[in-house]
Amino acid sequence: MVIFASHTLRRSRRAGLSSPRPLGPGDSHSEEAKDVDPLPATASNSPATSTADRPAVADPAPSPIATITLTPDEEVLVQALIKRGLVTFDQVHSAQQYGLEHQRDLRQSILELNLISPELLNELAFERLTAMAQDVPEKEVPAKPQAPVPVHTVPLLPNRTQHHRDVRKELQETTLTAPLPQVVGQVLERAIDCRATDIHFDSQETGLRVRYRIDGQLQDILFVEPSMATAMLSRLKVMASLNIVERRHSQDGRISIMHHNKPRDLRVATFPTIYGEKIVIRIHEVLTAVAGFAHLGMSQEQAEVIDRLIAQPYGAVLVAGPVGAGKTSTLYNCLERINSPLRNVMTIEDPIEHRIPGVNQTQVNSQGDMGFSEGLRAMLRQDPDVVMIGEIRDEETARIGIRAALTGVLVFSTLHGSDAPSTISNLYNFGIPGYQLSSSLLAIASQRLVRKICPYCRVTFAADEKVLLGLELDPDEHRDLRLHRGLGCPACFQTGYMGRTGIFEIMMVGEELRDLIFQQIPKDVLRRVAVDLGMRTLKQSAVDKILDGATTVEEVYRVVSF
């Protein structure tokens, strides 16, 4: 699609539209574009744009410099905007020139010039691109691909949009036409396709509510009629080898399915409620060959620290954080890196979330006499080189694990704690003396998970001075800083986020900290000394993610305490 300035000027003059006044240095406007009237201005309601009040201007001669080349996606979007009378050809020309000067795509340029509201532009983009994906475009898109201008965002993909848009509709239609086993299978498969970590089946008075937890947030997906609700729950219990008659007590089970020729383990847990049973299915990720820790969200320096820690012959490495912070995934990546035929690697977990070939994994039996402390005590008689404890929950498990680290075993474990220095205080409360901690601890890593900005609806905006001060950034130094956020689109279920990444705080226990831990110094002093020694706190790691454009300020404030 080629646009000439002279042609567009004459066309806009005939339509009674004026070209946009360029913004001067003194003009002020909000970063959020205001809503635009979907109907074009007329002479009756917009006298300022009337041709009668504007002096005639001679048509400029066409120049090759005024030629604009648009990508197929941009062409479809421009057609929708011009057809609705929301922009003129001259405005498109100005947005394109602005994008070339500031390395922006056409969509971002229109937003930053306040030519249209971001909500309406996002709606139009998906409306037109979805129509193009369904092979019903209003105008034929050129088949010859054009080299796109390098930008910092990922282009909108119609197939991805359509995929997420149709999840609810497809599953609802499946419940009406397909047999029950196929419906249950589709619910499980689509959850994996949507990157869900959990599936919730909530029994209610009017039926069964099905929700996916995607990027830490629950999303309503399906509602099952009461006539099928009980049968669906029974089908899940049969697949998990549970007692379908027992409905008054909780049960735990496991389902193994093949998805895209890969085995997937699903952990099933039932719980009785007043309207029936509630079932939650945890979907475990597939572990592949791990080349490093950077894919977890660690910086290069933090990944190098972890690599040095797992190479130690003995000692304790603890990972702290709340529930759902990704602690177990970090430990599994450590085990994957050090797993070798030359080492006896053993784990005791509740439950076993990933099965690693070559690792001796044991699950605690809460109904028998095989708890963490009993299993760990028996495990130490198996000549282990590396031991992974799923979680330190009581004093006895903590004492046995710390003692094992002192006797020549490399110990990995998780612990609940707000940050790395606070974990030391929690170990004090478990009755572990300071002299044992100072001799056994190698490092403590604290972590959180933050949602990443959706690449399909990502936009930029100027950083506010108050936001910079809240992040402890110098406003003068970051005067031209532009932050990122997601507008919300079908690809991210209108949340503005897609996927998650970790933020880490790794406290290496060196000689200075060993002396303080030996004296059982309070956590505030430990934190100040660790920061002076070069530790990057959770807050600093979160600010780095914001500056890199990986997440938003709102998401960081939701996860990290400032």
Give an account of the 3D structure:
It is flat and about 75 Å long. The protein has helices at 5-14, 72-83, 89-102, 106-112, 118-133, 158-165, 167-177, 180-193, 226-239, 300-310, 327-338, 372-379, 395-406, 420-429, 434-440, 465-470, 511-518, 523-532, 538-547, 553-559; strands spanning 2-3, 68-69, 196-204, 207-214, 217-224, 252-259, 262-273, 276-283, 315-320, 345-349, 360-363, 386-389, 410-415, 441-453, 458-462, 482-486, 497-508. β7 and β8 (276-283) form a beta hairpin. The chain has 562 residues and is α/β, with parallel strands linked by helices.
Notable traits:
17 strands; 21% strand; 7-stranded mixed beta sheet; 562 residues; alpha/beta
The number of strands is: 17
Low-confidence stretches: 1-67, 132-164
Structural class: alpha/beta
Please state the CA-atom Rg, rounded to the nearest Å.
29 Å
Please render the helix and strand layout as text.
Layout: E1 2-3, H1 5-14, E2 68-69, H2 72-83, H3 89-102, H4 106-112, H5 118-133, H6 158-165, H7 167-177, H8 180-193, E3 196-204, E4 207-214, E5 217-224, H9 226-239, E6 252-259, E7 262-273, E8 276-283, H10 300-310, E9 315-320, H11 327-338, E10 345-349, E11 360-363, H12 372-379, E12 386-389, H13 395-406, E13 410-415, H14 420-429, H15 434-440, E14 441-453, E15 458-462, H16 465-470, E16 482-486, E17 497-508, H17 511-518, H18 523-532, H19 538-547, H20 553-559
Parallel strand pairs: 9-13, 9-14, 10-11, 10-12, 12-13
Antiparallel strand pairs: 1-2, 3-4, 3-8, 4-5, 6-7, 7-8, 14-17, 15-16
